[in-house]
Amino acid sequence: MLLSVEHDKAWMERFLQFQHDLHDIVWSGPDWTLPPKYSSTHWSVVFIDNSPGSRRGIDLTHYYDKTKYVVIHDCGPKATPDAPHEVLDVILEPMKKWPYQAQYTRYTPYTIVLGHQPIPEMK
Questions:
Q1: Which are the contacts of 4, defined by CB distance < 8 A and separation ≥ 6?
Q2: Handedness of CA 48, 51, 112, 123 (dihedral sign)
Q3: Which one of 49, 58, 87, 90 is CB 3.0 to 4.6 Å from 53, fit for a cystine?
């Protein structure tokens, strides 16, 4: 099951065409609250790529005990044109709890993977 959560209804509506039995696309409202149907789900991977970037530290903390891995996109040099390090700054403290960490810097913007188990090597 793939779940896409969006706080911007107009943005979400652009992608509803991709929704099907194995991919649910839901609106969270402005506070990024998951619908009750998903609030206690344990995920294999959570992909964090939301806006504003300042929200990512909150989400990283929220999913700490609800996922095996977290992938955080746009977190490093040139994360956003107007705030190149905003995202990285807000995740530094929550990242410290995760026992396994990897940063992928081959392409910008960078991506960070955090896990409760070893992170497979990517080439």
A1: 12, 15, 23, 24, 25, 26
A2: positive
A3: 87
pLDDT in tens, 65-93: 999 999 998 876 654 555 555 567 888 89
Residue that is written with structure tokens 């992938």 in the block:
71
Residues of the chain with CATH 3.30.110: 42-115
Decide if 86 contacts 53 (C-beta within 8 A).
Answer: yes
Which tens digits make up the pLDDT trace of 50-60? 877 788 899 99
Rg of the Cα atoms in the chain: 15
Residues with Cβ within 8 Å of residue 37, at least 6 apart in sequence: none
Beta-strand ranges (E) seen in 11-99 are 23-27, 43-48, 67-73
- Please list the residues that pair with 3 across neighbouring strands: 24
